[in-house]
Amino acid sequence: MGAQMDSDGFRQWRRDMGLKQKDAADRLGLKKRVIQYYEKGDRDGKRVEIPRTVELACFALSLGREHYDGRTLPRSAADLAKPSR
After folding, report:
1. Closest Cα partner for 51 from 67, 34, 26, 73?
2. d(Cα 56, Cα 33) in Å, to the nearest integer?
3. Triad 9, 11, 12: Cα angle to 5°
């Protein structure tokens, strides 16, 4: 498995998406303050980890997905070409 998203990676994701902190908070369903903690990497001197759920939500938003209805998604581009049954 790959490395966990860190504060620099989170900040880079937000900037690459062209989002202000408030916009990122709205899109992720979080408060702006939480976004600030993620980007700083700590809160009151204690390390703040970015939860896997937030990492995956960032990934989904990067793919243009705002919502997910639970349907099975194709595992590869080749699966997209297969006829559905």
Report:
1. 34
2. 20
3. 65
Distance separating alpha carbons of residues 57 and 10, to the nearest angstrom? 11
Q: What phi and psi values does residue 18 have, to the nearest 5 degrees?
A: 70, 30
Tens digits of residue pLDDT in 4-40: 999 999 999 999 999 999 999 999 999 999 999 999 9
Which pLDDT tens digit goes with each residue over 45-64? 999 999 999 999 999 999 89
H-helix or E-strand containing 43? strand 42-43
Q: φ, ψ for residue 58 (rounded to 5)?
A: -60, -45
